[in-house]
Amino acid sequence: MTRRKAPPKIVLASDHGGVRMKADLLAHLREKGIPAEDLGTVSTEPVDYPDYGFAAASAIRRKEAARAILVCKSGIGMAIAANKSAGVRAALASTVDDAILSRRHNDANVLALGGNEVPLSRARRIDKIRRYETAHWKE
Fold this sequence. Notes:
Layout: E1 10-14, H1 19-31, E2 36-38, H2 49-61, E3 67-72, H3 76-82, E4 90-92, H4 96-106, E5 110-114, H5 120-135
Parallel strand pairs: 1-2, 1-3, 3-5, 4-5
């Protein structure tokens, strides 16, 4: 008999430019019953995005999380910061197809989104891939 594993934990992190989108995605994941943890920031006060990208990447590297979603104004800085950690494959996605291809062809484990580039409704559709993957995660 095949048992389903518990959903993999997802961590979310943003700088001040991604706070709104991160909060929306965090609420969306929790509504769906997907374990998710907010690594900050929680305010629009300026912060250094690498600190938050590194924190999420570290959680992936230490296997405290299976996936991460990172948000900054463009998404580029967060993706670059996260990719500095061994075992992290961060992909910047601005469309659902970008996200699908990054998982299918590049085994991306971190999704980077641009808070100024991607509408919240599209960000939720992009994240739908994680929900599918979580629902079909098997031992």
